[in-house]
Design goal:
eight-stranded mixed beta sheet; 2 domains; 292 residues
């Protein structure tokens, strides 16, 4: 069996997938398979994948599902994966030719693998610029929260499949298409650390719709999904600043969801009550950002 599953949730990205496919064909290690989770595409993605399966350069598994959003694609992937490790590479990103080889080498070099939820490497842009900062040379491992006290920017998480299955799937809410994906990494890191390396695993291309205005719109479009994430962060991260920020976001989410009780359930209702006036102001701020 292969060591790593590279999985890609995709929706109408047939025009971008060939770049990722080509990067996988060039990998210096074949110790992986590619799992494509098609989230209801109607642009010929399935036909394109069938052509690649016939070419048989890369071992490809394909799963079609009803459109439900990125997080539901992750749920399907985690239910299907059989390899020891897994990593998500988005449809608009691709991998340096040595990425899989470096992943396998780093994992093999670790002692006491059972103590880790997985490991984390770097993302870069197409011109080779590291996203955010590198890991400090003396840093060997840490929880998701601990790591992000020492570094900035998107990083590539390689997960131990057995550890992923200890956690519930991302929840699904009617008419919503987003639950923040990082909340799983945060929950996993609460139990077991992630090892870290400054190896580069992914080349990232940010799409034009990934602006700050887009994230504010996402708050409005998926309030229950974001509320779920806020509540988990409140449970895990006890820093005062983070707690206040999450309660303000939670209050705003309750307005977008048209369910004010959402801000009081499964959290400290006294803190919600005390921060409620500030939450209203914060919600108005988000509305202004959406409309500008």
């Amino acid at each position: 069996m292969k060591t790593i599953t590279v999985f890609t949730p995709t929706f109408n990205r047939a025009h971008l997938l060939p770049r990722l496919y080509n990067s996988l064909c060039k990998q210096t290690s074949s110790d992986f398979l590619w799992l494509i989770i098609d989230d209801g595409s109607s642009d010929g993605t399935q036909e394109l994948v069938k052509q690649w399966q016939v070419e048989n350069i890369v071992q490809i598994e394909y799963q079609f599902k009803e459109n439900g959003g990125m997080h539901t694609g992750h749920n399907v992937a985690y239910a299907c994966i059989k390899t020891e490790l897994n990593v998500c590479i988005d449809s608009d990103d691709y991998m340096p030719e040595y990425a899989v080889e470096k992943m396998v080498q780093f994992w093999s070099s670790l002692e006491d693998k059972h103590n880790y939820s997985g490991f984390v490497g770097l993302d870069i842009t197409e011109d080779g610029t590291i996203i955010g900062t590198k890991f400090p040379n003396n840093l060997k491992s840490g929880s998701y929260l601990d790591l992000y006290k020492k570094i900035t920017g998107d990083k590539k998480f390689v997960l131990v499949t057995e550890e992923v299955r200890k956690y519930p799937p991302y929840p699904m809410y009617e008419d919503e298409k987003l639950v923040p994906l990082g909340i799983l990494y945060m929950m996993m890191g609460e139990a077991k650390d992630f090892a870290v390396t400054n190896d580069v695993y992914c080349v990232v291309e940010y799409q034009e719709d990934g602006s700050s205005n887009s994230i504010f719109n996402q708050y409005r479009q998926s309030p229950k999904g974001f509320a779920y994430a806020r509540k988990e962060i409140i449970r895990i991260d006890k820093s005062v600043t983070r707690q206040v920020k999450m309660y303000l976001h939670l209050i705003s989410s309750s307005f977008f969801a048209k369910d004010l009780s959402l801000a009081f359930k499964k959290v400290n209702p006294v803190k919600t009550f005390l921060l409620y006036p500030f939450g209203i102001v914060f919600h108005l701020y988000i509305l202004i950002k959406i409309n500008t």
